[in-house]
């Protein structure tokens, strides 16, 4: 399990999401508004908006908040956000991708660069590390929809390419161009997913020692907490012992 999944699971165990719920809602609302602005305000006609609403529901965001974010787009309100991808190297040379949505490119770039530098890493040019990742679709379900075998069978029937199951649930990967179709097929079998989105999946995850792993997780957490950052991905793997320690 590579950096992004491990980071999420550790934050889940720590209850981190609850502590920053308002910030999480703010980021989700921003994505909903941008998605609705870019396409139709109807989630059935706009896959990106539908994915944003699924993510919001998974975090128990109130329906009123979701509708308000859509209405902002319909009414032409809200700031004009620019989507930017940052790439860099964290401690130990691990590759990291940061996806941000900002109304102030200079501020965001300055902040992200300082986080990398303070961690002992460095921000690089766009394209410097993304070749080590695949851009793929990801559909997530909780552990209660079925066991690993049942989900794997359903995923194959839906046209997915890979499944990773754990105590936290099931991650189903597919080609980025077929995300919408695969999601609909899986939804018919397992119900509404927790998430359906495009992600950066590392091609060859790199194991890191525990000291480096702690530094990397601190950087990931700092990046994730920035108001303009939507997603963070890494190509490193932590030891199970470190995961237990950090989740404790």
Characterise this structure.
The protein is an alpha+beta fold. Helix content is 48%, strand content 23%. It contains ten helices and ten strands. It has helices at 3-14, 16-19, 21-38, 47-58, 63-74, 105-118, 148-158, 179-190, 210-225, 240-247; strands spanning 82-89, 95-102, 122-124, 133-141, 162-166, 169-175, 195-202, 206-207, 229-234, 236-237. It has a four-stranded antiparallel sheet. It has a four-stranded antiparallel sheet with strand order 5-6-4-7. Helix 1 packs parallel to helix 10, helix 3 runs parallel beside helix 5 and helix 7 packs across helix 8 (179-190). This is Probable transcriptional regulatory protein I2H38_15690. It is found in: Cytoplasm. Pfam families: TACO1_YebC_N, Transcrip_reg.
Helix content: 40-55%
Global shape: globular
Order of helices and strands: HHHHHEEHEEHEEHEEHEEH
Q: Which structural class do the helices and strands define?
A: alpha+beta
Please report the total strand number as a whole number: 10
Quick check: average pLDDT?
Answer: 89
Biggest sheet details: 4 strands, antiparallel
Structure annotation, total helices: 10
**Compute the gyration radius: what is it?**
18 Å
Residue runs with pLDDT of under 50 for 5 or more positions: none
Amount of beta strand: 15-25%
Order of strands side by side in the largest beta sheet?
A: 3-1-2-9
First-residue to last-residue Cα separation: 19 Å
């Amino acid at each position: 399990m590579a950096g992004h999944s491990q980071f999420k699971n550790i934050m889940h165990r720590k209850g981190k999401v609850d502590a920053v719920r308002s910030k999480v809602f703010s980021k989700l609302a921003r994505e909903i508004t941008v998605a609705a602005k870019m396409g139709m305000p109807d989630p059935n006609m706009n896959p990106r908006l539908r994915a944003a609403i699924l993510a919001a529901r998974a975090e128990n965001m109130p329906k009123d908040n979701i509708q308000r974010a859509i209405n902002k787009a319909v009414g032409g309100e809200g700031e004009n956000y620019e989507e930017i991808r940052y790439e860099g190297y964290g401690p130990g040379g691990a590759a990291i991708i940061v996806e941000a949505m900002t109304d102030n490119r200079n501020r965001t770039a300055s902040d992200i660069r300082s986080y990398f530098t303070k961690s002992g890493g460095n921000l690089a040019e766009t394209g410097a590390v993304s070749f080590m990742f695949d851009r793929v679709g990801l559909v997530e379900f909780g552990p209660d929809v079925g066991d690993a075998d049942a989900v794997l069978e359903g995923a194959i029937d839906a046209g997915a390419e890979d499944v990773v199951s754990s105590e936290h649930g099931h991650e189903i990967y597919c080609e980025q161009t077929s995300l919408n179709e695969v999601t609909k097929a899986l939804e018919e079998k397992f119900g509404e997913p927790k998430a359906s989105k495009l992600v950066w999946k590392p091609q060859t995850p790199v194991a890191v020692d525990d000291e480096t792993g702690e530094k990397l997780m601190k950087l990931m957490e700092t990046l994730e907490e920035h108001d303009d950052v939507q997603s963070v991905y890494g190509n490193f793997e932590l030891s199970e012992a470190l995961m237990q320690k950090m989740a404790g």
